[in-house]
Specification:
- α6 packs antiparallel against α7.
- The chain is built from nine helices and no strands.
- It is an all-alpha fold.
């Protein structure tokens, strides 16, 4: 579920950003706290084991393991992986952008293909364009909270 804080951001005062970060519902902290606690517990366990449980020979072996892992981590550059990630994010964004309906193409097709200068042709073109606009509005209403607030029920669509 997407949680929007648009109204809180618009009316934020000094220190408002830090207050938004501390909100629990839909926050980044709620998403990552389990992984953070697991990482901190593993780090604390390794640190305590290195400082108090390992002998000098075991410490040297552990340091060699750390150096090997550090050298192996540099084999795949982070910028290379980040490039794939950014490409994936942009591809998903572009797919979402392309799936939002724009009634312009439909309206031009209706105007070009529904002939007639009389009242019947004009009413038919107008009705088809209204249906296209209604379909676009229904999709945008499902996506955007601002549009949903403007048209909360189907009765508001008629008005």
């Amino acid at each position: 579920m997407t949680v929007t804080y648009t109204s809180r951001v618009a009316t934020a005062r000094f220190g408002g950003f830090s207050q938004l970060l501390l909100l629990w519902r839909g926050s980044i902290y709620k998403l990552l706290y389990r992984e953070l606690l697991l990482f901190l517990a593993a780090y604390l366990g390794l640190s305590l084991a290195y400082r108090f449980l390992l002998s000098e020979a075991q410490k040297r072996l552990f340091e060699k393991l750390v150096l090997y892992c550090d050298k192996s981590a540099n084999l795949i550059p982070v910028s290379f992986v980040l490039g794939f990630y950014v490409a994936l994010v942009l591809e998903r964004w572009w797919g979402q952008f392309r799936s939002v309906p724009a009634p312009d193409g439909l309206m031009m097709a209706v105007a070009g293909n529904v002939h007639g200068a009389d009242a019947r042709g004009r009413i038919l073109r107008r009705t088809l364009m209204r249906y296209g606009s209604l379909a676009a509005l229904l999709v945008l209403r499902a996506v955007s909270t601002a549009v949903y607030k403007r048209f909360p029920t189907t009765d508001h669509l008629v008005e």
